[in-house]
């Protein structure tokens, strides 16, 4: 049994509270990790606001993490104590049909992401006194230590800084892959990225690295527009209305080969403007998370069909975590992919609420929690 301080969410609309949680020792196929860094991703905020209702509280949030393996259970073969790992909120078992066909981002274990029990055997292994404790997407990295399934960790080289390892485990991989894999950005393309947080800035970088000629960033916050230009955007606009008019002028009415939606929260009314920015035969990628209760979006179906446009969903950049994380870290090492520059501020575990207040206020691009 291991005791750990953790940031717990006791219900929607509440602040995080720091308390001591008891963790089981690792069982078969499980890994105990000392958490070294965790990104403050907006996806966790959906649980706090209620946009994504959670089935169990209290819950340890945080899913963009990295740490050092302390102990492993029976049958664990991919890591051992002392190894450094990135935590993947998309588990990859390597055995199901999606994993075998190269689509580990759709691993069947994803159906258990918000189960109360462990992926391995379903047992409740996290407790606050007599209460069972859930973990956001089977990770729960807002904690000093965490018990994880082997399918949720990816071994990384030990020279990688903790913050970079944490960010590449979710936001960087998802944003980069949204451009490179799902939007299929090619040299010479024109791309629009709508919403510039850690995800959007990484999509801008993916488009730049893929060779896009024009990259349009859209965000109402001036600081974020400045950051988009820093990461490779060629133009930045404060609103969708401004972007539509200016991009129409800059492209001679052709518009964008691809449009990537990385808004903090996806709303139904945002899809039609995104499609307006998408050229004939273009691709509109929806990476942003929408409120679970939002089940309809109004779009012009005639224009969608007659202009041969595509709307594509995207999770984890449509790539295998075990392939993407080492690959992106190689680009980081080579100085091609900029990750350190994404980190605006670091916070202690006790400052988690301040970190999310800064994120909501648009004062940071990405905050990193150091437990």
UniProtKB/TrEMBL annotation:
It comes from the Bacteria. SUPFAM superfamilies: GroES-like (SSF50129), NAD(P)-binding Rossmann-fold domains (SSF51735). Keywords: Metal-binding, Oxidoreductase, Zinc. GO terms for molecular function: oxidoreductase activity; zinc ion binding. The keyword Oxidoreductase applies. Pfam families: ADH_N, ADH_zinc_N. Its cofactor is Zn(2+). Residues 13-369 form the Enoyl reductase (ER) domain. The keyword Zinc applies. Gene3D superfamilies: Medium-chain alcohol dehydrogenases, catalytic domain, NAD(P)-binding Rossmann-like Domain. InterPro entries: ADH-like_C, ADH-like_N, ADH_Zn_actinomycetes, ADH_Zn_CS, ER, GroES-like_sf, NAD(P)-bd_dom_sf. Belongs to the zinc-containing alcohol dehydrogenase family. This is Alcohol dehydrogenase GroES domain protein.
């Amino acid at each position: 049994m291991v005791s750990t301080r953790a940031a717990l969410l006791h219900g929607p609309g509440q602040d995080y509270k720091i308390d001591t949680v008891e963790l089981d020792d690792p069982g078969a196929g499980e890994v105990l990790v000392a958490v070294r860094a965790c990104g403050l991703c907006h996806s966790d905020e959906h649980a706090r606001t209620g946009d994504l209702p959670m089935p169990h509280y209290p819950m340890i949030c945080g899913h963009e993490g990295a740490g050092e393996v302390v102990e492993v259970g029976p049958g664990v073969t991919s890591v051992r104590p002392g190894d450094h790992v990135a935590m993947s909120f998309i588990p990859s078992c390597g055995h199901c049909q999606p994993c075998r066909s190269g689509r580990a981002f759709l691993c069947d274990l994803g159906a258990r992401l918000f189960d109360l029990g462990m992926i391995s055997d379903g047992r409740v292994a996290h407790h606050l006194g007599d209460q069972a404790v859930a973990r956001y997407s089977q990770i729960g990295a807002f904690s000093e230590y965490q018990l994880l399934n082997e399918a949720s960790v990816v071994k990384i080289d030990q020279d990688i800084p903790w913050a970079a390892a944490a960010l590449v485990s979710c936001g960087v991989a998802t944003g980069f892959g949204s451009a490179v894999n799902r939007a299929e950005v090619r040299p010479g393309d024109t791309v629009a990225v709508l919403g510039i947080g850690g995800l959007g800035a990484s999509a801008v970088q993916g488009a730049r690295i893929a060779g896009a000629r024009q990259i349009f960033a859209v965000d109402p916050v001036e600081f974020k527009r400045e950051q988009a230009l820093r990461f490779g955007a060629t133009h930045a606009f404060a609103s969708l209305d401004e972007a539509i008019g200016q991009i129409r002028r800059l492209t001679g009415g052709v518009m964008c080969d691809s449009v990537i939606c990385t808004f903090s929260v996806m709303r139904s009314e945002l899809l039609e403007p995104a499609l307006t920015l998408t050229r004939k035969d273009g691709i509109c990628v929806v990476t942003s998370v929408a409120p679970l209760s939002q089940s309809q979006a109004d779009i012009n179906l005639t224009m969608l069909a007659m202009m041969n446009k595509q709307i594509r969903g995207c999770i984890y950049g449509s790539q295998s975590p075990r392939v993407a994380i080492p690959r992106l870290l190689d680009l980081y090492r080579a100085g091609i992919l900029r990750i350190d520059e994404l980190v605006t501020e670091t916070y202690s575990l006790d400052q988690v609420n301040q970190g999310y207040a800064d994120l909501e206020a648009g004062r940071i691009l990405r905050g990193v929690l150091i437990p």
